[in-house]
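@channel sequence for tomorrow's demo:
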Amino acid sequence: MPKYVIEREISGAGNLTAEQLKGISQTSCGVLNILGPQIQWVYSYVTADKIYCIYNAPRFANTPHKEDFQPTQ
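C-alpha cells (generated this afternoon):
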C-alpha cells in the first residue's frame, strides 16, 4: 500500500508536551477516519515548527489536503 506524508506547520511543535502531541495526533487520526477507514496512520515526526505524519492509503483514496486539518492550538 502506498505511503503518504501530511506536513503540518505548528509553531513551536518541538516544545509541545506529550499530552499536546497526543491531542494533535488524535485529531489527525479522526480526520483520516472520516476520509476512509482504509487510511491508516503509521507514525509522526516532530520538528521545531512542523509535524510530519506518515500514513498508508490505497492509491486511489481521497488523500487529505492541507486545508483538511485545523491546528489544535
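heads up for whoever presents: The chain is about 25% helix and 30% strand.
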